[in-house]
Fold:
Amino acid sequence: MRDYRRVSDTQDQSAPSSRLQASAPSPATEGQPVKPVIPAAAAKRANASVIGMIIALLVSVAAFLPIVLMNPSPKSDGFRPNIDVSAVARNASGVAGFTPVAPAPGDTFHPNYARWTAATGTGVAAWEVGYVTPKEKFIGLTQTSKANPTWLLQQTKNAPVTGTRNAGGKDWELHDTGKGEKSMVLAYRGSTVVLAGDANLEEFAVLAAAVVKSLESNPTVIVSPSAGPTP
Structure:
């Protein structure tokens, strides 16, 4: 009887320890992430939302695609306005009192404006044409029959005379700012033409020769006695 009780007591003491060991998580399962279980209805709603977003994105792309195709990106050489210098010069001749020059320096020179400007800021009305050169530089042409020293200083940016350059068989007065910009001035057949810009002298010479050719094809400008002297 005494031995029986001892065995029973031993079994009773070991029982709680067994229960604790059974309830403790095994080391193998402690490091594993717990995977949440999503109900089937919720998973279906989530998938429907994703599909709806994709469909909406495709619809938006399809709506804007024709607009993008109808407006192609500009070419690398930039926009070239179609300026008919000769036509604008003919229209301006009535206001100018003389036939403005319409030089034709070749297809590699692109005019980007041609206009007659009133005597407002400079005090001298003038014919103006802008050219983009073959090397993507700029030369502005200005012609007037009423040039004066002050106006010439404005057009040449007060640059000193550094010499002359022959173009079109005429000696042009060369002004150089020393900062890349230069001017060529010619007083011929009753008007004064100023070419100014940042192009090189070779490109200046091409345009200047075309100006001389245009000047010689137009009637000589008759300056009224009341007009100021042309340098």
The chain has six helices and seven strands.
